[in-house]
Design a protein that fits this description.
CATH topology: Rossmann fold
Structural class: alpha/beta
Number of helices: 6
Distance between the termini: 16 Å
Largest sheet: 6 strands, parallel
Shape: globular
Oligomer: single chain
Strand content: 15-25%
Length: 189
C-alpha cells in the first residue's frame, strides 16, 4: 500500500525498450506498457520528472566473471533494440539514462540528475522486475531515496522471480501499490 508520495518525486521507467519487451514475459506486456504510460501522463500533469532508462549491455566492464548462460528469452537485437517502445511517449525534457548493467545508478548520471532536481523519492516501473527494477531499487535505497513500486507496471521473464521481488525484497525497500494508487497519492501532494 502506498501511504504517501513525496512532493519531490520522480518516475523512473526501467528498460521499456524494443528488445526487452519482445522477450517472453510472465505478465502481458500490453498491461505493463498501459500502466507505465498512465504513470508518465500523471507525472507530467503534476510537473514531476520522468526518467526513461534503457540498457545497452554491449561493452560493459562491470563484471569479468559474468557468464551469459542463465536461462533467458530469445529475442535477437535489431536496429531498434535500444529504442523506447512507442507506447511511452518520450519528451525533450525527460531525463534519459542509458545503463550498461542491471541498476540505473551504476556509472550513470542518474543520482546527479535527481539531486539537481531535489528528488527525495522515486516511483519505479519497468522490466525486468528482479533485474533492472530491483537492481535500481537496491541502489536507490542505499542512496537514501524513498521508493514506491507500481506493481501493475512491471513484469519479469520468470513469474517466480517477479513474485520473489514483490514478496521479499520490495517491502523492505519501499512501498508497493498499483498505478492507480500511485496516481491517487500524487494528487494529494
Amino acid at each position: 500500500m502506498i501511504t504517501e508520495i513525496d512532493k519531490n518525486t520522480a518516475l523512473v521507467l526501467i528498460d521499456l525498450q524494443m528488445l526487452i519487451v519482445q522477450l517472453p514475459l510472465a505478465h502481458p506486456i500490453e498491461k505493463v506498457l498501459e500502466s507505465s504510460a498512465k504513470l508518465v501522463a500523471a507525472f507530467r500533469e503534476a510537473k514531476l520528472p520522468v526518467v526513461i532508462v534503457n540498457v545497452n549491455p554491449t561493452g560493459s566492464a562491470a563484471s569479468k566473471t559474468r557468464k551469459d548462460n542463465a536461462p533467458r528469452g530469445g529475442a535477437a537485437p535489431g536496429a531498434d533494440w535500444l529504442d523506447i517502445t512507442p507506447e511511452i511517449k518520450v519528451e525533450a525534457d525527460d531525463i534519459r539514462i542509458t545503463k550498461t548493467t542491471w541498476g540505473a545508478f551504476y556509472q550513470t548520471a542518474l543520482h546527479q540528475e535527481l539531486q539537481k532536481k531535489g528528488i527525495t523519492q522515486i516511483v519505479l516501473a519497468g522490466v525486468a522486475t528482479s533485474i533492472g527494477v530491483e537492481g535500481t531499487a537496491r541502489s536507490a535505497n542505499e542512496l537514501g531515496y524513498n521508493i514506491a513500486f507500481a506493481s501493475d507496471a512491471m513484469t519479469d521473464m520468470f513469474a517466480d522471480a517477479h513474485d520473489n521481488s514483490f514478496k521479499y525484497i520490495f517491502p523492505r525497500l519501499g512501498e508497493v501499490g498499483t498505478t492507480d494508487e500511485v496516481i491517487a497519492k500524487l494528487g494529494e501532494k
